[in-house]
Amino acid sequence: MEPRIKNPALILPGALPALRALSQSAHDAGLPRTTSLLVQLRASQVNGCSFCVDMHARELIDAGEPDTRVFAVSAWRETTYFSDAERAALALTEAVTRLSDRPDPVPDAVWDEAASHYDERALAALVVEIAAINAWNRLNAATRQLAGGRLGQHRQAETAGTEATESTRSTP
């Protein structure tokens, strides 16, 4: 399997910095890094984005998260590995990611549970993070970006301030 094209965020001038800035705004608002990575991993699992699943699982492990938590993200409801706040963030992630799955895309119960753990600023950051990862997932899935191997090349190119020649992407 090969990518259809390079990641569109690497082709269009300004797209990569704009997408990175979106996620950075959630980080700047104080959304905990672990919560952000759990959200990114769960949305990527739901969307079938292999590139992002691979990347965010590795980032969680690199951040010191136990393998048991990383491996259980897709079954978070059936485990005791996640805090109530993380569970609320994961439920909100699933609802926002699957907007067309129900007549009330984000049920009040899901929103209210998240609001019981996060203040308005943190909720805004959470929703922005969910929107950002869904944008990345759609770019990657549509163009068949592949998991593994090329992330390091892209990060080196990004650090050098040049456009990567391989079809990859990275989020903060």
Description:
With 172 residues, this protein is mainly α. Helix content is 62%, strand content 0%. Helix 3 runs parallel beside helix 6. The chain is globular and about 40 Å long. 36% of the residues are buried.
Distinctive features:
single chain; 172 residues; mainly alpha; AhpD-like; 9 helices; 0% strand
In short:
The chain has 172 residues and is mainly alpha-helical.
Annotation, overall tally of beta strands? 0
Strand content: under 5%
Structural domain count: 1
Radius of gyration: 16 Å
Q: Extract low-pLDDT stretches.
A: 151-172
C-alpha geometry:
globular
Distance between the termini: 27 Å
Q: What is the CATH topology? A: AhpD-like
Main sheet specs: none
How much helix is in the residues? 55-70%
Order of helices and strands: HHHHHHHHH
Task: Note the total helix count.
Answer: 9
Please specify the SSE layout and strand pairing.
Blueprint lengths: L7 H4 L3 H14 L4 H15 L2 H13 L4 H6 L11 H14 L10 H8 L4 H23 L8 H9 L13
